[in-house]
Specification:
By secondary structure, this protein is mainly β. The chain has one helix and 25 strands.
Amino acid sequence: MPILKRLVLPLFAAVLAPTAACTQSPPQEFSSERHRFRLVTVADGLDHPWGLAFLPDGRMLVTERTGTLRIVAQDGRVSAPVSGVPAVHAQGQGGLLDVVLAPDFARSRMIYLSYAEAGANGTAGTAVARGRLGDDGEGISNVEVVFWQQPKVTGGAHFGSRLVFARDGSLFITTGDRQQRPYVQDLTRQQGKVIRIRPDGTVPSDNPFVTSDGARSAIWSYGHRNVQGAALHPETGVLWTVEHGARGGDELNAPQKGKNYGWPVITYGRDYSGASIGEGQRKEGMEQPVHYWDPSIAPSGLLFYTGDRFPQWKGSLFVGALSFRLLSRLELDGERVTFEERLLRDYGQRIRDVRQGPDGYIYLVTDEGDGRILRLEPVP
């Protein structure tokens, strides 16, 4: 059965004049093990931006957690709010979160938005809607919800919400545990899961729990705490994710079909009170992470770099960090991390998203009240 409902929303034109000019300052320069680079501010004045996607013409779609979608021109001009965005539950960590283009965007003009959706009696849950972006970016029409977390629960944290299209056209969606640990191991609930659906909200017949009695058929993997970064491996096409642990125990995973990643039964972290969590670090039938961080860096955003602007970074995995306010660069040997380098430690900004632009540069989004889109450029 399709996981889909229609939102009836008014469509008004978005004004593409800048809401505020980007305050340009001299680019800061940084050194790394492989490259010297500068950090250029593309746009600023954004209200807790969360997700970034590039349009074919080089402009960017950027979400603001408060519920606004904007278009950023190549020269840094920021549009007025794009109309047609669903109403969001902008409380705590909830709000308007990720944005991706449909694989056939050039033909369909469809975009997908993840967000926190309000329910009855103060509840909320992760939802995903799709709609058609106007040819000039003037608004979104024909908005439909293709996924909503079931059931909705109270609380304002851990919505997950990264969106990634697989090579077969299916859509991966991450959900957080909503700080309700017992439900993460429960396959009748969608908290703490990686979800896989078709673009229209229907469930693929080869999902692992389609024939399992009582299980939610859209579940791909489970035992996740709060997945805030996701990307496909450029060679294998396998989904990789990063998720927040508690105090320690942030994880890098490559979630496999039907597998259990352990939260909250096993973890490398501890409760914020200092108390232990679960049964230890390993248990039969539960997967080990590819890599973990202790202490926590609060990872958000994930990028496999494939460009030519930074040839010595090609093949590296980049992870944004919120609590440590840095950009982590990981070198890999298959599914083994062989080296970590921490960049931008002196910049002091919460890095929420990491993307590669069509120009081969690396773009960052900072989760601040005066949030920025930043571009990393090599220094000759």
